[in-house]
Amino acid sequence: MSAATSSSVTWIACLLVLTGCLLVSPGSTPQAQQAIPDSIAAPNTRPVMTVHAAGAQIYECTPVADGRRGWRFREPIAALFVNGVTAGRHFAGPSWQLTDGALIVARAAASAPGATGEDVPWLKLAVVEGRASGQLAAVTVIQRINTRGGTLTGPCDTVGALRPVPYSSDYVFLAPSR
């Protein structure tokens, strides 16, 4: 990716994060937890932290087949909030970095549909690496729940074009039960 493209994506993503923060309101906290679908359940775990994310899912226009193009998910970018206070950021990896320096990287392990076709799926993510201390040191699973927005459909015209789509969700950090 060129420096100009990277700069444009960063600027757009920052604008969307700020817009999302305004839409979510400064006092936003994680939504009341709905029933967790069996496909992303994490038995024998306990929640250690829940954060609310507001930002964008970034998509890239790529060749798919027979000269056609389509949108492919590229990366998330979001601010993380606890009780309306910035707690960190979420970005490619997928990774979560908190203001205290904790960093967790995970991979998708299972999914469940979002509430509507416009909402990205709910996910169960398995932690694969990180540097965390305190309560996050024991985290082995992250659930993405209560998603709103974030999906992109429709044609793309230019290979390499990037499009951010606003989304929000809650992320629940889980550790093994004691």
Automatic annotation (TrEMBL):
UniProt cross-references to Pfam families, sorted A to Z: DUF3455
Signal sequence segment: 1-30
Organism domain of life: Bacteria
Organism of this sequence: Paracraurococcus lichenis
Lineage: Bacteria, Pseudomonadati, Pseudomonadota, Alphaproteobacteria, Acetobacterales
Protein name: DUF3455 domain-containing protein
Keyword Signal assigned: yes
This protein's UniProt keywords: Signal
Keyword Cell division: no
InterPro entries recorded: DUF3455
